[in-house]
Give the backbone structure.
Amino acid sequence: MKIVIAPDSFKECLSATKVAAAISEGIQKIVPEAEIISIPVADGGEGTVEALVSATGGKIVYTPSLDPLNRPIQSFYGILGDGKTAVIEMAATSGIELISPEERNPLITTTYGTGLLLKAALDEGYTNIILGIGGSATNDGGAGMAQALGFGLQDKNGNSIDQGGGCLGKLYSITHSKVHPLLSDATITVACDVQNPLLGPSGATSVYGPQKGATPEMLEELEKNMTHFAGILQQKFGMNFADIPGSGAAGGLAAGLMAFCKARLVSGFDLVAQLTHLEDHIAQASLIFTGEGKIDSQTAFGKTISGVAKLAKKQQVPVIALAGKMEDDLTELYNQGVTSVFAIGNKPMSLEESKANAYQLLIATSEQIMRLVSKREKK
């Protein structure tokens, strides 16, 4: 029996690699002879670098950066097996997991650290760059990133504006005389898993601001500032980025990357699936395991499980999805190719307890599923 394990991470809990390892342990308890292919999948968020470096035989490069509150941290980016492509995930420096819930405030959190990772890759001569932008703590439209790359973001008095979404309303002009010299030669591909525009009720601020710590009062200020910022970007670069699908990803970082870096947005899942040859492995499998921390009605719209299910449906391979939490109507996921969804909790427990025990819960759930599968296989 060949089993492909292709999960996303369990956010703020386990990386996709650790999720895959736990599922593998559970399977091997019952079917030790199974041929298991683990392909940790990420859609642009945490784990994207690890997944792509592992799949291509690349390497990790460690480099100093700054967290969303501009505190020094040791961060990293990857070099793919071709030796020519750098891969960065904003979660490694501007991610929400890097700051505590009490510290989350999109008025002041910044993507400056993400810009430092881009600069580090450019400094080493890498001009083909993949950037995953899931899991952000920010709502600054990529302004901090641009400042780290040398763009001057100035107020009406010619002074640099401070960082964070709360300062975008002060932006008056953008200068580029000190921009990194290799940026104009760079090809930057942005791995993104959402289609939200920059502004409006389905935009960056309204949809994702609350989970980053924004109060209702903050949301109003942030939306006003982002609207102003979008206007300045249009003046400077001659293009309206506000309504482009996906431009609102990562607190508008996607819009900033398109404007300042001429970046191209692509499906994070499709990019990772292509580089890991996921569909080829699925075509040879008899069963697929996937999963992520929360599975709900939104999972069917561009998330990892949805992508895995669609590939598996083409090959008529059953898909088991595991989740820390499941809710809402999952009919669309089943239509896309998921065979069944299992929550890993084995008793009433708090979110904190579930996260603390997620690895063992994944092992136990996978083991129970394989008891049923192996029994049916023997008939």
